[in-house]
Amino acid sequence: MPPLEDPLLPPPPPSTPCQFHLMNSTFRPRFRFPSAAMVFLWALLLLSFTASYLILVDPGHRSTSLQRNIRSSAEIRRPNGITVLVTGAAGFIGSHVSLALKSRGDGVVGVDNFDNYYGRALKKTRRDLLEFHGVYVVNGDVNDPRLLSMLFETVEFTHVMHLAAQVGVQYAVENPYAYVRSNIASLVTLLEQCKSSDPQPAIVWASSGSVYGAQNKVPFSETDRVDPPTTLYASTKRTGEEITHTYNRLHGLSITGLRFFTVYGPWGRPDMAYFSFIRNILHGKPITMYRAKNRVDLAREFIYIDDIVKGCVASLDTSGKSIGSSGSKNESAPYRIFNLGNGSPVTVPALVTILEENLKMKVEKDVVDMCENGDDSFAYVNISLAERELGFKPTTDLQTGLREFVKWYLWYYGKPLVENRNV
Ligand SMILES: O=C(O)[C@H]1O[C@H](OP(=O)(O)OP(=O)(O)OC[C@H]2O[C@@H](n3ccc(=O)[nH]c3=O)[C@H](O)[C@@H]2O)[C@H](O)[C@@H](O)[C@@H]1O
Question: GO molecular function, one example (predicted)?
């Protein structure tokens, strides 16, 4: 705090002796031109009144800075660029896709409700990373029609990349309503918004490889039957495919559903098996490895995140246009479904071995026969349609992808100090 009489400041003017006494003076107020200081004070007062009115009374104003952020994030910086609303932008696939679009000059706005299914910390770090690269992520729920209408009033989205979902196959047993709400109700809310937007955006959304359920015919092709579902998660994704089909037929929305298989990589989902395996290996704890009937190892179509991102971006680029419900009889909006897997399954024990090799550590394995929990025992997928239509060609094998994942994991979480017991 500077002294009141700062030696560097000119001395204050001498105080003027009181010129009149209120009680005994014949005080007559008279008009005087206000001094500059008075004008300044009044202006300040007026400004603060207006600001508090706008902030407290007019809720619209609060959204103005939000809308500024949204508009700036939606700015296109390349010729023929697109403007994409990415739902689930703070999620694993959503964050990678958002960055890929932004880095090639598209306009990208994210929305995410930061649900606590696998903790919020990683989602917030992904959000910070996105904002560092100029992608703004609105904290909100896709199932909120007012939020959606504000977003579409603020920006003319050409595309929606709908990745927000309640994920996880096992958690559905515990909390079925979360799946119905996120994977069905939110999808309908979003489609309703897109249906009534002018222009209507094209929609690319996350279905799942799990829709093939108990099918035994391999490899799975898009034209194959997709019943019966073995999990509620799969049922909600299958329902989503049917719902989107209806919106495509009735309302002329361009729809592309992507059947993602087991996507892995840096910034991945901590609820997935490869994530819990690395955690346990590093902490010297045993892992549970499920096994199907007749002692058959489980197998999955592990697909690296960079390959999936290419599939998502190509889907946006080839989506065609929504045509609205007034489209002519000869014209129909595209409705497409693609498998996005690797085209070659790998067993879970093989995945664990690659992790052990990368970490130069061994882990104790509890091999458990899979109970009737509804999980699928294998996945083997035909990706030729995506190859043909999207130019989709996965290039990262599991060794390379897991090496990248392990590098990221050790960078992000650090190596635990607990000693691993070698087995
Ligand atoms: O294909 C899909 O659609 C789904 O792929 C994954 O589901 P999943 O393949 O079951 O992925 P993980 O939970 O990582 O499990 C991979 C394999 O490891 C097995 N596993 C899991 C956990 C465990 O402790 N031990 C174990 O052997 C599972 O049974 C499964 O065979 C994703 O988690 C889903 O969100 C996605 O939609």
Answer: UDP-glucuronate 4-epimerase activity
Residues in a beta bridge with 296: 292
DSSP state of 212: G
Check if 170 has its Cβ closer than 6 Å to any atom of ligand 1.
Answer: no
Is it the case that residue 25 has pLDDT exceeding 50?
A: no
Give residue-wise pLDDT tens across range 257-311.
Answer: 999 999 999 999 999 999 999 999 999 999 999 999 889 999 999 999 999 999 9
Q: What value, to the nearest 5°, has the Cα angle with vertex 304 and ends 186 and 354?
A: 130
Is there a contact between 160 and 126 (Cβ–Cβ < 8 Å)? no
The answer to whether 247 is a known catalytic residue is no
Shortest-distance Cα residue to atom 7 of ligand 1? 262
User: Which residues, including other chains, have CB under 8 Å from residue 293's CB and lie 6 or more apart?
Assistant: 369, 370, 377
Q: Residue 142 in contact with residue 194, Cβ under 8 Å?
A: no
Write down the residue that tokens 């990262």 correspond to: 396
Say yes or no to pLDDT of 358 above 60.
Answer: yes
What domains can you pick out in the chain, each with its CATH number?
Answer: 56-261+305-341+381-395 (3.40.50.720)
Give the C-alpha separation, 109 to 124, whole Å.
Answer: 16
Could you count the other beta carbons within 10 Å of the beta carbon of residue 272?
Answer: 17
The strand order across the sheet containing 202-208 reads 136-139, 107-112, 83-87, 159-162, 202-208, 255-260, 335-340
